[in-house]
Design brief:
alpha/beta
Length: 189
């Protein structure tokens, strides 16, 4: 697992714990693209930027957790992945930290979602209150990682979400249309 912060410093944990959003990147924050390899490929999902900014303004800390096997596949150099994080932070300036798993799906690592290592690290590193932290992604594996880290979860229909709705519903995972919808419901609750 690789951890990156916009300022290059380790994240500072809030004390007392605060609410948080743990977000998948591709298909949730940004438009899904198969094995993105260029920072300019990152395009925000509709209304995601405003929604994330509103959550941050309401006191929610923001973490991104993303499987990025493009590194292990040799499609993206580690330096390019870091440039992609810089681009993501330019699109979403309230992001506190980005975690990525650079391993192949069958590598047997402990960080690739649905393993809980990345969301659990976000909770610890940012000082998030697990009872007030929501994991949002476009795959059932995202929800699995959040649940394994004892977080509430929501799956969006964007990205791969439209193809996994039936599986999500069968697993009792709430499904909403988009990240903006999830955040709107969260802030209105």
């Amino acid at each position: 697992m690789i951890r990156w912060t916009p300022d290059g410093q380790p994240p500072r944990a809030s004390d007392p714990p605060v609410p948080g959003l743990v977000l998948d990147r591709d298909g949730c924050l940004t438009v899904e693209g198969h094995h993105l390899t260029d920072p300019d490929d990152l395009v925000p999902e509709v209304d995601a930027q405003d929604a994330v900014a509103r959550a941050a303004a309401a006191g929610w800390r923001i973490a991104v957790v993303t499987n990025q096997s493009v590194v292990a596949r040799g499609l993206v150099a580690p330096e390019t992945m870091l440039a992609m994080h810089v681009r993501l932070a330019a699109l979403f300036p309230t992001i506190d930290v980005v975690y990525h798993c650079p391993h192949l799906p069958d590598a047997g690592c402990t960080c690739r979602k649905p393993a809980p290592r990345m969301p659990a690290a976000a909770v610890t590193d940012l000082g998030l209150d697990p009872g007030r932290t929501l994991m949002v992604g476009d795959k059932v594996t995202d929800a699995g990682a959040g649940r394994a880290a004892n977080l509430d979860v929501v799956m969006v229909r964007t990205g791969h979400g439209a193809d996994e709705v039936d599986e999500a519903i069968a697993a009792g995972i709430p499904v909403v249309d988009s990240l903006a919808t999830a955040i709107d419901r969260l802030l209105d609750a």
